[in-house]
């Protein structure tokens, strides 16, 4: 399964999620950001590739729906409700991601 994690700048939350889950035998993982200054910017190609998309906040889901309405027609978008208050690989962020994502994916 192809999994995409999205936050704003793709520096801390979604990048942590990608690095945390990238070695799984069950899915392929990528990450991107919605902001113009994102490390890796979310694109139609990435959204098309993904079978499931995890966003950190509701506003990320709304931004994706606004930018890629046709591509997102049949995609599952899961809001994790993880605020932008953690650094890359922060212990609390790692635990939040594991707890949130394990409901949906084998990790």
From TrEMBL:
Annotated InterPro entries: Ptyr_pPase, Ptyr_pPase_sf, UCP029416_PTP
Gene3D superfamilies the record matches: 3.40.50.2300
Span of domain Phosphotyrosine protein phosphatase I: 1-103
UniProt name for this protein: Protein-tyrosine phosphatase
Species annotation: Pedobacter africanus
